[in-house]
């Protein structure tokens, strides 16, 4: 089980400084979607240079141009790129083709997918290997959380690895660890914390205690 730090709202130098503070606790560093919009692949290159031992994820939430937009991230040094699970299966297959060509990985973000069981089967059939349950920021503001969707994903996924994101913090982490996802994604709980290092440590310790963390 890996801990993925999502960097969404920070400027480049602040994001690097925060990642340095929690470096020992995180396995994957996500260049979050707002960050990608703001800094582009420069942020991916910079983080790969500053954190060579970490896996970098470019959260592009690709909707079209799957091969090209995936390749931009892989050429910049990302290990993972994200595509939206609601997009055309042709785009997802194009992203998978780019990932295979570069020896990297594709994460399918299941945000706003209405029929998870059906889409999980379609995506696994297409060759998707990592599916991310995700309650987005706007959905969280309406009081939603990804725990129930994670249960559905764990029930229906046959082969894919499972990631989960959406407002997870040190107070709720035990509920998620109990379901044994492969990747737990945490953004604002750490980046907005008064003490980011403490929050990241508490989350990582909960993962280790459950015997899952790497
Ligand atoms: O992908 C994300 C969201 O769509 C904003 O870009 C976040 O990185 C993801 O939700 C994790 O962040 P938190 O929900 O703040 O933990």
From TrEMBL:
SUPFAM superfamilies: Ribulose-phoshate binding barrel (SSF51366). The keyword Lyase applies. SMART domains: OMPdecase (SM00934). Its EC number is 4.1.1.85, 4.1.2.43. The keyword Lyase applies. It catalyses: D-ribulose 5-phosphate + formaldehyde = D-arabino-hex-3-ulose 6-phosphate; 3-dehydro-L-gulonate 6-phosphate + H(+) = L-xylulose 5-phosphate + CO2. GO terms for biological process: 'de novo' pyrimidine nucleobase biosynthetic process; formaldehyde assimilation via ribulose monophosphate cycle; L-ascorbic acid catabolic process. Gene3D superfamilies: Aldolase class I. One of its GO terms (molecular function) is orotidine-5'-phosphate decarboxylase activity. Pathway: One-carbon metabolism; formaldehyde assimilation via RuMP pathway; D-fructose 6-phosphate from D-ribulose 5-phosphate and formaldehyde: step 1/2. Keywords: Carbohydrate metabolism, Lyase. InterPro entries: 3-hexulose-6-phosphate_synth (IPR017553), Aldolase_TIM (IPR013785), HPS/KGPDC (IPR041710), OMPdeCOase_dom (IPR001754), RibuloseP-bd_barrel (IPR011060). Residues 2-203 form the Orotidine 5'-phosphate decarboxylase domain. PANTHER family: 3-KETO-L-GULONATE-6-PHOSPHATE DECARBOXYLASE SGBH-RELATED (PTHR35039). Belongs to the HPS/KGPDC family. HPS subfamily. Belongs to the HPS/KGPDC family. KGPDC subfamily. This is 3-dehydro-L-gulonate-6-phosphate decarboxylase.
């Amino acid at each position: 089980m890996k801990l993925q730090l999502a960097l969404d709202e920070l400027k480049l130098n602040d994001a690097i400084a925060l990642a340095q503070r929690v470096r020992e606790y995180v396995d994957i560093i996500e260049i979050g979607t707002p960050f990608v919009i703001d800094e582009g692949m420069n942020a991916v290159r910079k983080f790969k240079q500053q954190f060579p031992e970490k896996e970098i994820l470019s959260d592009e939430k690709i909707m079209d141009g799957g091969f090209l937009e995936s390749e931009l991230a892989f050429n910049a040094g990302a290990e993972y790129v994200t595509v939206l699970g609601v997009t055309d299966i042709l785009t997802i297959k194009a992203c998978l083709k780019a990932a295979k060509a570069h020896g990297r990985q594709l994460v399918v973000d299941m945000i706003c997918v209405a029929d998870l069981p059906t889409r999980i089967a379609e995506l696994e059939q297409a060759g998707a290997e990592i599916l991310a349950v995700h309650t987005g920021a706007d959905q969280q503001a309406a009081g939603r959380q990804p725990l129930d969707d994670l249960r559905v994903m764990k029930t229906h996924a046959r082969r894919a690895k499972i990631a989960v994101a959406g407002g997870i913090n040190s107070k709720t982490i035990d509920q998620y660890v109990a379901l044994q996802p492969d990747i737990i994604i945490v953004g604002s709980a750490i980046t907005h914390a008064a003490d980011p290092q403490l929050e990241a440590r508490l989350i990582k310790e909960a993962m280790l205690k459950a015997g899952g963390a790497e």
